[in-house]
UniProtKB/TrEMBL annotation:
Name of encoding gene: nnrE
Reactions it catalyzes: (6R)-NADPHX = (6S)-NADPHX; (6R)-NADHX = (6S)-NADHX; (6S)-NADPHX + ADP = AMP + phosphate + NADPH + H(+); (6S)-NADHX + ADP = AMP + phosphate + NADH + H(+)
Lineage: Bacteria, Pseudomonadati, Bacteroidota, Cytophagia, Cytophagales
Residue stretches making up the YjeF C-terminal domain: 225-493
Biological function: Bifunctional enzyme that catalyzes the epimerization of the S- and R-forms of NAD(P)HX and the dehydration of the S-form of NAD(P)HX at the expense of ADP, which is converted to AMP. This allows the repair of both epimers of NAD(P)HX, a damaged form of NAD(P)H that is a result of enzymatic or heat-dependent hydration.
Organism encoding this protein: Dyadobacter subterraneus
Self-association and partners: Homotetramer.
Positions that bind (6S)-NADPHX: 57-61, 128-134, 157, 260, 323, 374, 439
Domain YjeF N-terminal: 9-215
UniProt protein name: Bifunctional NAD(P)H-hydrate repair enzyme
InterPro entries referenced in this protein's UniProt entry, alphabetically: Carbohydrate_kinase_pred_CS, CARKD, Nnr, Ribokinase-like, YjeF_N_dom, YjeF_N_dom_sf
The keyword Lyase is annotated on this UniProt entry: yes
Length: 493
């Protein structure tokens, strides 16, 4: 699924009106019906609803939604916030239809706000994608009051006060919804952890906007939903043998962190690689043999750290980093590996920290190496950023500059390709914020590279499957109780 910017959203709206053709009024009606359909599936008529409308098209949606919900037997009160004399044409047209049906209260000052009781629904239709500046004055006061009210807040299209495709200031006043019901496509703002409280659970509803326009629109931003994820699966042919699926090689672990080697290796083995060799320091030998009899173990001459590696000739992909530490001899081994490697590579964890401390190694990374930093590791690697939009730009520039693929881990892990395209992942949950979860991802990615997934597809698909397995684990064990091994247990496609 594509993510478009605010200008493209406006053009998509206009293209639909022109090409379908459909009147803008009827398009608003369709959007409102889609919202109501979503609402009806979740809330019964017992809960009363207050709809807060601005005077642009988002407010117009609010009015149409109020009318449709009233027609379906819901108890709806409508408030229009009179922050401006002007109103959009479709707002005005909807107002005329609603006025005859429902009593509307115009609010000219914050004290005129109603008192709320518990278990009440607030629909936020103050401002949508047309936000052009921070909210102030009456609107700001109203938003503050809504945020303090008990009950459930549902934003129409986007929380009022939140920009679609750029960062807000920390001081901005923005609705904090429980849910956002957004039209047609997810918005870039929803991908940023800084906006989690300003999106709540967000849901995309299809309002039939111009498919051809969406197809033809150029954007660097994509959302890996289920259909995008499913398309990337390579099927296992009947006449294949273990050689078909490559020989993965993982370098992981140090004294006290052999668990990282176990987790990444098990994840690799469970993700379809034909053969797996794991290189560990001597202290990890028995642990590895017992934990994963399916793997071949290559043992370092050093007891506690990785300081060397075997001949790389037979391997089809290499993963390095989980638990390796940053000892000078390990740094040297990584340097030598980068000199010799001729197959796809994934670099994670301590290997990333080594790169941060030895930036000269960055120039040695083979083209399309996958780096999988969490935000802190990325900061060490690429420097500070003022907000998450800025960080994403930093990551895009970094990916282009070093010709690498970055999996920037987070709630919506961003897979950034060498051309600057960003694929945000849809799967995963907060239960995965637990030790070892990143090691599991390294194993999956190494496995996919060994199976000859392109580095781009390996990164997008690997991150997607990692999240999906995490979701299955959370379902079975809960987000609290699940651990990284549970992610491995739930791999499979
Ligand atoms: N796209 C689609 O496909 C569809 C879109 N639909 C709906 O339309 C919504 C977008 O509508 P919209 O463009 O009228 O914008 P919206 O946010 O309602 O209001 C803009 C008005 O507010 C004003 N204003 C801005 N910032 C302000 C501030 N801080 N404080 C005060 N005022 C401020 C701004 O003034 P201006 O910037 O011009 O000075 C303008 O007058 C979209 O979110 C969705 O709900 C669906 O109906 C159908 C399909
Ligand atoms: K809104």
């Amino acid at each position: 699924m594509k993510i478009l910017n605010v200008n493209q959203i406006r053009e998509m709206d206009a293209a639909t009106i022109q090409n379908e053709p459909i009147s803008s009024y009827n398009l608003m009606e369709r959007a409102s019906l889609a919202f109501v359909k979503w609402y009806e599936e979740r809330f019964d008529t017992k809960k009363s609803i207050s709809v807060f409308c601005g005077k642009g098209n988002n407010g117009g949606d609010g009015l149409a939604i109020s009318r449709i919900l009233t027609g379906k037997g819901y108890h709806v009160r409508v408030f229009i916030i009179e922050y401006s004399k002007d109103a959009s044409k479709d707002f005005q047209q909807n107002l005329e239809k609603v006025e005859t049906l429902i009593q509307i209260k115009s609010i000219f000052e914050p004290n005129a706000m109603p008192d709320f009781v518990d278990d009440h629904i607030i629909i936020d239709a103050l401002l949508g994608s047309g936000l052009s500046r921070p909210v102030s004055g009456l609107l700001e006061e109203i938003i503050k009051k809504i945020n303090e009210a008990p009950g459930t807040i549902i934003s129409v299209d986007i929380a009022s006060g939140l920009y679609v495709d750029k960062s807000n200031e920390k001081s901005d006043t923005i609705i904090k919804p429980d849910h956002t019901v957004t039209f047609q496509l997810p918005k870039l703002a929803f991908m940023m952890p800084q906006n989690a409280v300003f999106t709540g659970d967000w849901h995309v509803v299809d309002i039939g906007l111009d498919k051809k326009f969406i197809e033809d629109s150029a954007t660097p931003y994509y959302f890996t939903d289920q259909s995008a994820g499913d398309k990337l699966v390579k099927s296992r042919e009947k006449f294949s043998h273990k050689g078909t699926f490559g020989h993965a090689f993982i370098l992981a672990g140090s004294y006290g962190k052999i668990g990282a080697a176990v987790l990444s290796s098990r994840a690799c083995a469970h993700s379809g690689a034909g053969l797996l060799t794991v290189h560990v320091p001597e202290c990890g030998y028995e642990i590895m043999q017992i934990s994963l009899p399916e793997a071949m173990i290559s043992v370092d001459s050093n007891r506690n750290n990785i300081t060397s590696f075997p001949d790389l000739e037979s391997f089809s992909a290499i993963g390095i980093g989980p638990g390796i530490g940053q000892e000078p001899l390990t740094v040297r081994a990584l340097d030598q590996l980068l000199e010799q490697i001729k197959v796809p590579l994934i670099i994670d964890a301590d290997a990333l920290n080594i790169l941060s401390k030895h930036p000269d190694l960055l120039d040695k990374l083979p083209a399309k190496t996958i780096l999988s930093p969490h935000p802190k590791e990325f900061q060490r690697l690429a420097g500070e950023s003022v907000n998450e939009f800025d960080r994403l730009e930093l990551a895009r520039n970094f990916a282009e500059k070093y010709n690498v693929i970055i999996c920037l881990k987070g709630a919506y892990t961003a897979v950034i390709l060498t051309n600057g395209d960003v694929h945000f992942n849809s799967t995963g949950n907060a239960g995965m914020a637990t030790g070892g979860s990143g090691d599991v991802l390294t194993g999956i990615l190494t496995s996919l590279l060994a199976q000859k997934y392109t580095p781009e597809n390996a990164a997008i698909f690997g991150v997607y499957q990692h999240g999906l397995a995490g979701d299955k684990a959370a379902e079975k064990k809960t987000k609290t109780a699940m651990i990284a091994s549970d992610i491995i247990e739930n791999l499979g496609w």
